[in-house]
Amino acid sequence: MLTDYDAIERELLDVDGVMLGRIAYHDPYLLAQADWKLFGDDAPVRSRADVLRAMIPYVERHTRRGTPLRGIVRHMLGLYHGQSRGRQFRQKLSDADRLRAAGVLILDEALAAVEPRFAEETPA
C-alpha cells in the first residue's frame, strides 16, 4: 500500500499513475500536498483548517438537497489523522445526535476542538 510520497514517487518511476484510494480515505490531507510534492506547484499548500472551511459551502449545498450530513463528514474523519487532538475531531464528526442537532455548525465545533485558536470564531 502506498502510504507516503516517497513510496508514491518510487512507483511513479515505473508506471504512469498510482491509485491512492485507501490512504486518501484514511489521511485525506495527503492529497492537499499532491500538486506541490509531485508536480512542483508553487501555490501554498492549504492548511487542514483551510480544507475544512472550504468544505462548508459544499456541505451546506448538499445538505439542503437532502444529503445526510453524516454521509458527507464521514469522508472527512481522517483530515486530522496523526495530529494532536485528532481523536476529538473524529468524535465530534461521529456523534450522530450532534450531527443532527448542530448541522453544518458541527464543522466549526470540530475545528475548534482540534485547533483551539479557532474556538473564539466558533458560534455559540
What does this 3D model show about the protein?
With 124 residues, the protein is mostly helical. Helices cover 58% and strands 0% of the residues. It has two domains: 5-39, no CATH class; 48-121, Up-down Bundle (Four Helix Bundle (Hemerythrin (Met), subunit A)), CATH 1.20.120. The longest helix has 17 residues, at 48-64. The chain is elongated.
Beta-strand residue fraction: under 5%
CATH architecture of the largest domain: Up-down Bundle
Number of helices: 9
* CATH class annotation of the largest domain: Mainly Alpha
Order of helices and strands: HHHHHHHHH
Tell me about the largest β-sheet. Answer: none
* Low-confidence runs: none
- Report the span from N to C terminus: 42 Å
Which oligomeric form is depicted? Answer: single chain
| Rg on CA atoms, Å | 16 Å
In short:
The chain starts with a helix and ends in a 10-residue tail after the last helix.
Layout of secondary structure:
Blueprint lengths: L4 H8 L8 H6 L2 H4 L1 H6 L8 H17 L4 H5 L12 H9 L1 H7 L2 H10 L10
What features would you highlight for this structure?
9 helices; elongated; mainly alpha; 124 residues; single chain; Four Helix Bundle (Hemerythrin (Met), subunit A)
